[in-house]
Design goal:
about 170 residues; mainly alpha; about 10% strand
Length: about 170
């Protein structure tokens, strides 16, 4: 329906970004090596060789670096770079931040993605990703998904979740 909003939703899903962070995402130069990553984020993900910078639109201005772990994530950034001009963000060119925000929410509602229509919102993609990662880290479902015991690795998984989400 709208390829710009489609990319923004994909970014939310792939990296656990907020809608505003996805709309303001600058893909060119976003991939950085571990040595350039925020030390806190690098420490939380020792297995990651590369990270993706989340700077623009970050809540409270708190920038973070999220691990780049899959080929699909890298391909998504490459697709963004192919359509976004250098120095620009993943929003329709010629539109203001506010116009892109309104369009994002309009398109999602038009597609039925709303609390009222489906009982889900784009922000839920953040929760989905972090819960999937928690389960990968611990081998058990997160408490919100019915996990009733604190599995081995719970504290580390929670720390990684907080880092990934920018909390």
């Amino acid at each position: 329906f709208d390829p710009w909003v489609g990319l923004q939703v994909e970014i939310c899903e792939a990296f656990g970004l907020r809608g505003k962070e996805a709309r303001h995402f600058h893909p060119h130069g976003a991939i950085i090596p571990r040595e350039q990553a925020n030390p806190r984020d690098a420490a939380a993900f020792p297995e990651a060789e590369f990270f993706v910078q989340v700077r623009h639109g970050a809540k409270g201005g708190r920038a973070r670096d999220v691990p780049l772990t899959t080929t699909a994530q890298r391909e998504l950034i490459e697709r963004c770079c192919a359509v976004v001009a250098k120095g620009m963000y993943v929003g329709r060119p010629g539109r203001t931040s506010g116009q892109n925000q309104n369009r994002f929410h309009y398109v999602l509602r038009k597609c039925g993605i709303s609390e009222k229509q489906l009982g889900v919102v784009a922000h839920g993609l953040r929760h989905q990703l972090v819960n999937d990662e928690y389960e990968r880290d611990t081998g058990s479902p997160s408490p919100i998904r019915g996990g009733d015991v604190r599995p081995i690795g719970d504290a580390l998984a929670r720390e990684r979740a907080a880092s990934r989400l920018g909390h």
